[in-house]
Amino acid sequence: MSLRFIYGRAGCGKSRYCLDEIKKSMDRGDQNKLIMLIPEQYSFQAEKNMLNMLGVTHITKAEVLSFKRLCYRVFNEVGGITLKKINDIGKLMLIYEVIEELKDDLSIFNKSSKQQGFVDIISDTIKEFKRYNISPEILEHSSESIENDELKLKLLDLKKIYGAFEQKLHEKYIDAEDELTILAEKIDKSNLYNNAEIWIDEFSTFTPQQYLIIEKLLKKCKRVNITLNCDELRGNSDNTDIFYTVKNTERRILRLAEKNNVAFEKPVDLNQNCCQRFDGAEELKHLEMYFFSYPYRYYNKDINRIKLYKAQNRYEEMEVVARNIISLVRDKKYRYRDIAVVCREIDDYEKLISVIFSEYGIPYFMDKRREITDNPLVVFINSLFDIFIKNWSYESVFRYLKTGILNIEKDDVDVIENYVLANGIKGNTWFKEQWEFKINYDADETEKTAYEIEKLQKVNEIKKYISDPIIKLYKDIKGRKNIRSICGSLYNFLVDVNALNVINDWSRYFKDKGEIENSNKYAQIIDVVIDTLDEMVEIMGEEAVNIDKFSKLLNFGFEKHEMGLIPVSLDEVIIGDIARIRSHGVKALYIIGTNDGVFPRVSREEGILSDRDRNQLKENGLELAPDTKIQAFDEQFLVYTTLTTASDYLMITYPMADFEGKAIRPSSIISKIKKIFPKIVEKSQLANEANILDTVASPGPTFNEMVTELRRNHEGKEVNEVWSSIYKWYNDKPEWKNKAETIFKGLYYTNEAKEIDREKIKTLYGKPLKMSVSRIEQYARCPFAYYIKFGLKAKDRKIYEFSSPDLGSFIHTILDKFSETIKLEDMKWKEIDNNWCKEAIDLLVDKELNSRNNFILNSSAKYKYMTAKLKRILTRSVSVITEHIKRSSFEPISNELAFGTKGKLPPMILNLPSGETVELIGRIDRVDSMDLDEQTYFRVIDYKSGNKVFSLSEVYFGLQLQLLVYIDALVTNAEYYIHKQALPGAILYFKVDDPLVNGYPNMSQEEIENEILKKLKMNGLILKDARVVKSMDSGIEGYSLIIPARMNKGDTLGNTNSVVTLEQFDILRKYVRDTLVRLCEEMLSGNISIKPIKENSDTACNFCNFSSICQFDPSLIDNNYKTIDRKSDEEVWGLMEQKVKVGENSGTEQVD
Questions:
Q1: Do residues 34 and 48 touch, judged by C-beta distance below 8 A?
Q2: Of which family is this protein a member (predicted)?
Q3: Of 630, 649, 684, the domain-final residue
Q4: Phi, psi dihedrals of residue 625, rounded to the nearest 5°
Q5: Residue 336 and residue 485 share a domain
Q6: Given this model, what pLDDT does residue 275 score?
Q7: Under 8 Å CB-to-CB from 10, ≥6 apart: which residues?
Q8: pLDDT of the residue at 1039
Q9: How far apart (Å, rounded) are the C-alpha atoms in residues 95 and 920?
Q10: For position 687, what pLDDT does the model report?
Q11: Do 324 and 429 have their domain in common?
Q12: Residue range(s) defining the domain that contains residue 230
């Protein structure tokens, strides 16, 4: 029995030395067993290395084992495990069950136990306890000597959970974490490794469980060899030494040897051979030797084997890595299997690598276990239970349908999705035999058309196909059923809807396409799902649960299940976490994501036992896993092993920004390498240092880059002439020729909408052309968007919601009915009070809700709250309107006054230069009038639910014409309407709202009311006539509380932009008419140009639903905004006067 250490720094050939010794032993004819004991994740590579070294004939005489395989060998010989081994999913479910039973008996973890993630934390803690040989009894015993009350309570709670878990576990099962403990008991009975020689390789430290096994092997084996990655043995080291952890391991094993009187042979120092790995790679050898030395040893020669790259983001980072890999394989004859890409946060890069490496044609294997929660079958099952739990919500139903597993056409899914969205279908509505909701919401007819009947029949057929199997399952499992029964019903459901066969079909489909990894994913998932159900039945089969709890348990199992895949080729780039990467056979290594706090990782999560707790327990003789401080030192050792992995070439990259564009700093590794290697050049795209040929790596990505360069050349920018040769290469290849020619033609494509024939336009918009003012304003904002909406009649998908237009329409309806109520009850506005307003609004709103079938405001508690809020807003608004009228001599004479062929007023007729006419129609929210000195004045009020502010500048640009058209229609048709002439008195916006006001202590009710009046002050234009202004606010002194005017002493009007003369009103009316004629003429001439307006950051595109149709892109030469430069009122008046005079001089009458 003897112990020997084989030590040396990284790359000195420790593993190779072990294999050489095994081969020599075989050559000598030694009959004792020869074993290599290595970490589980390296076993496959170690077997390959042994096979290469020994050859097929000798491979049976030596064996590669991990601790897990060692257990298997011994248990096969002497027995020992009669119970079923529980997997991680079953263990988590068992812990969950234990916590559910104990949660009310816990003290410090009473609240935590109910939180998501607590089961995981407990599982990790129990795993740690087992690896460090800590039993529930040890926890209880240790708690007795702990003075810290919090830690004492933690230990007692953990003892309860751990003890109950162990008791339940050992009734039927064995935990894989207990195997080494059992092995330590059984190995003495085994004869397998008597007089064997063992080489323990690739470990830097061991758990107490593993130390116990090593101690047993020391007593049984002829010799135990242990490799150590360090510079020297038995040297002084503190925790700043990079080899601190390894030297601690050495000291601990020496104590085991001394304890058991095992001879200690002279260690093998391989540092003299250093460094075999870096032969011919002087920079890498220098990096290994001096990265952690201080003061720095500088390398002043040229650098060829170490590269640094600073990327703008992760996408650019991975593109550069992909191009570099292609270059190594193409130009320097590397094999893909010689290359590895590693990072500390593989999840941040997994999807990017998948997309970019596939695009570049780089074969790769992602060395990580895959979560299964996004697999279609798992989504299908989870969505199914969400349907029950979330009462057939839209999200759950269509997540279920869009997995693609159910045998239903995509078009049918679209049909029923539109129907469900339009009618707000959920809950018990799915249980109805037939749906009878509307199909066409634009139709006014009460009778269904043949098309609607046919469509409704189709909807009901689809609904039945979807809902019948789900309803059957629901009836089978509703209430409280045992888990065994629910699992059986779920399995039968999956069979009935053919889900498992669909998954098998997908697996075969990907296999036939040669996508073996995808094929394996689908091949495995059925077993994973069934294993999870089996585990639930095994662990908790007879427990009665409701659907909600079953769903949580099932989802819990899915979340914790990870799928392992094997490489599908021998020649692939290996991609993985830095902590898992193999240290042998890697010629070129790419370390990506080398950012501050990422690598080396800053460990901040202390776990359920804090660093302080661990130190206290250590003082009491209880050893646990290292605290975050020690983890930080271990992370430095990981930096060392990673930087020394590659034998030929090392590239280290980092992004300067994350996915959200936030700046992130480089790791300290970058700055340290720059100091050690003063001549190293950190490359980046920002510095334009990329060789153009570096971008020519693979046909697909190069083609995309070529498109960009051809576009730049087309725009007259300087482009490297090599792109012409590249274009010729694509044009000469049959598989690329068509695509290349299409791209070339595309350079001359202009994203412009051509004018449409006048007759076609008239057909689209209607003959004769009838237009509302709001539609013309929309045309002014963007002709193309107008054409799509009103010409092609494109519509948003109908959704069962209460949108802004719905809100505006509802408010207008109630305000109109409120005015009608006053008329019907023969009341006067000046007679009603706030209480009457409230009662009237409540009654009107309730009546409106009851009169509408399937109205959204009746559909849920959320919308009922909104209804209550609407009542408050409307009550406040009509109270303020009443106050306005009480203070005014103007009286409402009409609400929702329509002008047009069917209105009380005739349409405004626009005479276009082409000889055609346009009928202008509209509806005025409220018209007030007043007689003063035998002259009648009109006032137009427009109700708005949003913040609408009158702007002369917007009037000038044709964006705000409504109020002026309304007053023009009234004044022009006054004789027709009121049988006498009238003048414009005011055009005003009124905001419908119940505003919050800033108050102060002892504020009176009158002061509060005045503040509310200020908040709801109308805005717009008022006739510059003191008598008219006083008629609108009889109590005006200074600034009015209700209108945009100010009265000075002596009853003279103050100068504000909101008061205008009669002449100015005339100018406005004439200018607006001219503008309407101009816009209508443009419209009928077929102008549908993509010219959205832009004012500062506000554009017509901001809330446009048609951007995917027009594909407006301001970066293209032919796509430009129509820029609106906001003008002062003085500028607007000057420009309007000038244009109106030009129009008058032309002598054309444009409006009848």
A1: no
A2: Belongs to the helicase family. AddB/RexB type 1 subfamily.
A3: 684
A4: -60, 155
A5: no
A6: 66
A7: 229, 275, 277, 288, 583, 640, 641, 644, 645
A8: 92
A9: 74
A10: 56
A11: no
A12: 2-65+193-274
Distance between CA atoms of residues 4 and 257, nearest Å: 10
- The angle at the Cα of 615, spanning 612 to 616, to the nearest 5 degrees, equals 85
Helix residue ranges, H only, 733-772: 734-746, 758-765
Residue 968, number of CB atoms within 10 A of its CB: 25
Q: Does residue 880 form part of some domain? A: no
Structure tokens at 779: 């045309």
Q: Based on the domain organization, do 548 and 599 belong to the same domain?
A: no
| DSSP, residue by residue, 603-656 | -----SS-HHHHHHHHHTT---S--HHHHHHHHHHHHHHHHTS-SSEEEEEEES
Q: Tell me, what's the pLDDT at 928?
A: 96
* E runs forming strands in 137-267: 173-175, 197-200, 223-229, 263-264
CA angle at 885 for the pair 879 and 888, rounded to the nearest 5°: 145
Please name the residues in contact with 621: beta carbons below 8 A apart, sequence gap of 6 or more.
142
Residue 876 lies in a domain: no
- 820 occurs within a structural domain: no
CA 391 to chain centre: 25
Q: What are phi and psi of 577, to 5 degrees?
A: -75, 145
The candidate with the shortest Cα–Cα distance to 152, out of 160, 161, 143, is 143
Position 1017: which residue type?
Answer: K
- Number of structural domains (the chain) is 6
- Are residues 410 and 527 located together in one domain of the fold? yes
CA dihedral of 1108, 1109, 1113, 1114, whole degrees rounded to 10: -120
Q: Amino acid identity of 43?
A: S
Nearest to 93 by CA among 537, 449, 434: 537
The structure tokens 């100015």 sit at: 1064
| Model pTM above 0.90 | no
Quote the strand ranges of 236-376, DSSP E.
Answer: 263-264, 268-269, 306-311, 339-343, 364-367, 370-371
11: CATH: 3.40.50.300
Q: Is 782 annotated as a binding residue?
A: yes
* b/e 499-523 (16+ beta carbons within 10 angstroms → b): bbebbeebbeebeeeeebbbbbbbb
Among candidate residues 657, 684, 711, the one where a domain is terminated: 684
C-alpha–C-alpha distance, residues 781 and 667, integer Å:
50
Q: Was 1104 annotated as part of a binding site?
A: yes
Looking at residue 369, the DSSP 8-state letter turns out to be P
The conformation of residue 440, written as its DSSP 8-state character, comes to -
Question: Nearest Cα to 592, choosing from 575, 571, 567?
Answer: 575
Residue 1051's pLDDT is 80
- For residues 605 and 654, membership in a common domain is answered with yes
Domain contains 817: no
**Rounded to whole angstroms, how far apart are CA atoms 1081 and 397?**
49
89, 200: one domain:
no
Q: How far apart are CA 841 and CA 832, in angstroms?
A: 13
Q: Are residues 239 and 91 in the same domain?
A: no
Greatest Cα pair distance, the chain, in angstroms, is 131
Tokens standing for residue 679: 């001549």
Pairing type for strands 908-911 and 917-932 reads: antiparallel
Residue in the structure block whose two tokens are 């010989």: 77
Instruction: Please check if 487 is assigned to a binding site.
Output: no
Q: What is the mean pLDDT of each run of 10 residues along the chain (1152 residues)?
A: 92 90 88 90 80 72 90 87 79 88 87 83 89 89 86 91 90 86 90 92 91 94 94 71 88 93 93 75 89 86 93 92 92 92 90 90 85 91 95 94 93 92 89 84 64 89 94 93 94 95 94 86 90 89 91 87 72 88 82 92 78 86 79 85 92 91 91 93 71 74 82 79 84 85 77 88 86 93 93 84 84 93 91 93 90 74 87 94 94 93 90 91 95 95 92 94 95 93 96 89 88 94 95 91 90 88 95 95 93 90 88 82 90 92 62 57
The reply, when asked if residue 275 is annotated as ligand binding, is: no
Ramachandran assignment for 29, one of left (phi > 0), alpha (psi -120 to 50 degrees), beta (any other) = left
Are the C-beta atoms of residues 1118 and 752 closer than 8 Å to each other?
yes
**Shared domain check, 501 and 426:** yes
